Automatic annotation (TrEMBL):
This is Guanylate binding protein 1. It comes from Aotus nancymaae (Ma's night monkey). Pfam families: GBP, GBP_C. The gene is GBP1. PANTHER family: GUANYLATE BINDING PROTEIN (PTHR10751). InterPro entries: G_GB1_RHD3_dom, GBP_C, Guanylate-bd/ATL_C, Guanylate-bd_C_sf, Guanylate-bd_N, P-loop_NTPase. The keyword Ribosomal protein does not apply. GO terms for molecular function: GTP binding; GTPase activity. Residues 35-278 form the GB1/RHD3-type G domain.
């Protein structure tokens, strides 16, 4: 059953108190109750740039995230608002509004860097909000992106050959889509006299310079990081909504009070986010729901608080530990439910019980396979197999006991009248032995005709008869109608019959043992079969993910090479033009231009 979200407003998810980041239990409790996949949109930017207004619009509300109206930053830490996704049924839209970067009151930008990194790690769409145009000042203010390799690790044990300990391809596999929103944008969108789109303006602004100095390297660094880490980029420009004096009342104003172009631009932005923002997904195609997002928040904040770097691989493994353990319990609960509904003890045969076990076991493994991920060395599946084996053995023991109890009760009901007759001496007379044997056979037939005695039926009967052998022999010996020779023959017959019954019981025990061994092998093969199928699916997903990552990296390298070639070509053309100009001057100076050839 899907959970319903009734958040009337945002709550603080990660508190920033005196420079220390801490999670808020109230917000984590909300996340833990969200069973649906989540689309996480985080917004960051300098303080007092209108981030909260856009987030309120995404929430479909005029008020919620604090807008503030002064030069002080209103949002502290990271605030969360969970709402039903307006365009994706059975999805929850999680909006994260971050405290303004560069707040003069903080003095130290250490926390800004962590807030920026957490927003990147937790989101599936990352919105960077700034004022005005994309100029060098705007790029300088986005220096946090250049620090990401120093703030985040993708692997717990990075490859020694990775640049600065990390390869950008690893980041691309789990970094969010990038959206740059430019507020109070006043330029005409054109280049070389031709109109361009906001996306083309962003790409143009991210072009690199030919490196000839440290200044060029500094110019290129943030642009290079954005291009490498965020392969999917989008840009939106917004006109100023109202006159500056009315900005303090923005959340009270209606759309008709705002600039029509601004209203349309906000609508376009919201539509894009609703339509294109993806479900938060981890490496291996793992869709994130509320509890998984909760686990990520706890893992990342704990790492930062302890002085470590947040590591994506460690976060996924920690999440896997929690979820795989829960998956085992979920699978066992399903097995118990199915067996409880299907099994009626005692079963007539062992195979009947084993067939029910195998069907329930297969479903339980399916439940585990669906719910688990990154089960390193298959430890949790091995644990599940051990628990299912114990469950099977427990059911077999319960079945044996239920059969024993049922048969013992039947024997008491059926044979107690015979025992009373023996005590009364009814068979202690000439011809009494034959009467006793006939009555015994009749009662055995009646016993065999009783239904649902279970697998212990014959063993319990033979154990009972063996306990009454002395009584039978006493009746035989006191029957005066039988000669000594007849008594010997009858005793031998009874002895042979008892030996045959014992042999049959041994054979049946061997058959049961063989059935148990075959069942164990079938259970093992079922685990292997479903695990193999899952590994094939995961391998295909991993190959697709790696292909997307490598394709993205190759495309970016191709663009860089193309720009470099274009830059070198332009530089070469400039050098040729300089040479031509110099040649013309020298030709004119020496009068060579008057010569006719």
């Amino acid at each position: 059953m899907e959970s319903e979200i009734h958040m009337t407003g945002p709550v603080c998810l990660i508190e920033n108190t005196n420079g220390r980041l801490m999670t808020n239990p109230e917000a984590l409790k909300i996340l833990s109750a969200i069973t649906q996949p989540v689309v996480v949109v985080a917004i960051v930017g300098l303080y007092r740039t209108g981030k909260s207004y856009l987030m309120n619009k995404l929430a479909g509300k005029k008020k919620g995230f604090s807008l503030g109206s002064t030069v002080q930053s209103h949002t502290k830490g990271i605030w969360m608002w969970c709402v039903s996704h307006p365009k994706k049924p059975d999805h929850i839209l999680v909006l994260l509004d971050t405290e303004g970067l560069g707040d003069v009151e903080k003095g130290d930008n250490q926390n800004d860097s962590w807030i920026f990194a957490l927003a990147v790690l937790l989101s599936s769409t990352f919105v960077y909000n700034s004022m005005g145009t994309i100029n060098q000042q705007a790029m300088d203010q986005l220096h946090y992106v250049t620090e990401l390799t120093n703030r985040i690790r993708s692997k717990s044990s990075p490859d020694e050959n990775d640049y600065e300990g990390e390869d950008s391809a690893d980041f691309v596999s789990f970094f969010p889509d990038f959206v740059w929103t430019l507020r109070d944008f006043s330029l005409d969108l054109e280049a070389n006299g031709q109109p361009i789109t906001a996306d083309e303006y962003l790409e143009y602004s991210l072009k690199l310079k030919q490196v000839t100095s440290q200044k060029d390297k500094n110019f290129n660094l943030p642009r290079l990081c954005i291009r490498k880490f965020f392969p999917k980029k989008k840009c939106f420009v917004f006109d100023r909504p109202v006159h500056r004096k009315k900005l303090t009342q923005l959340e009270k104003l209606h759309d008709e009070d705002l600039d029509p172009d601004f209203v349309q631009q906000v609508a376009d932005f919201c539509s894009y986010i609703f339509t294109n923002s993806k479900t938060k997904t981890l490496s291996g195609g793992i869709k994130v729901n509320g509890p998984r997002l909760e686990s990520l928040v706890l893992t990342y904040v704990s790492a930062i608080s302890s002085g470590d770097l947040p590591c994506m691989e460690n976060a996924v493994l920690a999440l896997a530990q929690i979820e795989n353990s829960a998956a085992v319990q979920k699978a066992i609960a399903h097995y118990d439910q199915q067996m409880g509904q299907k099994v009626q003890l005692p079963t007539e045969t062992l195979q009947e019980l084993l067939d029910l076990h195998r069907a329930s076991e297969r479903e339980a493994i399916e439940v585990f396979i669906r719910s688990s991920f990154k089960d390193v060395d298959h430890l949790f599946q091995k644990e599940l197999a051990a628990q299912l084996d114990k469950k099977r053995d427990d059911f077999c023991e319960q079945n044996r006991k239920a059969s024993s109890d049922r048969c013992s009760a039947l024997l008491q009901d059926i044979f107690s009248p015979l025992e009373e007759e023996v005590k009364a001496g009814i068979y202690s007379k000439p011809g009494g032995y034959r009467l006793f044997i006939q009555k015994l056979q009749d009662l055995k037939t009646k016993y065999h005709e009783e239904p649902r005695k279970g697998i212990q039926a014959e063993e319990i009967l033979q154990t009972y008869l063996k306990s009454k052998e002395s009584m039978t022999d006493a009746i035989l010996q006191t029957d005066q109608t039988l000669t000594e020779k007849e008594k010997e023959i009858e005793a031998e017959r009874v002895k042979a019959e008892s030996a045959q019954v014992s042999a049959n019981m041994v054979e049946e025990m061997q058959i049961k043992h063989q059935q148990m061994m075959e069942e164990k092998e079938k259970g093992y093969q079922e685990h292997v079969k479903q695990l193999t199928e899952k590994m094939e699916r995961e391998r295909a997903e991993l190959m697709e993910e790696q292909e997307r990552t490598l394709t993205s990296k190759l495309q970016e390298q191709t663009r860089l090479l193309k720009e470099r070639c274009q830059g070198e070509s332009t530089q070469l053309q400039n050098e040729i033009q300089k040479l031509q100009k110099t040649l013309r001057k020298k030709t004119k100076r020496y009068g060579f231009h008057k010569l006719k050839i």
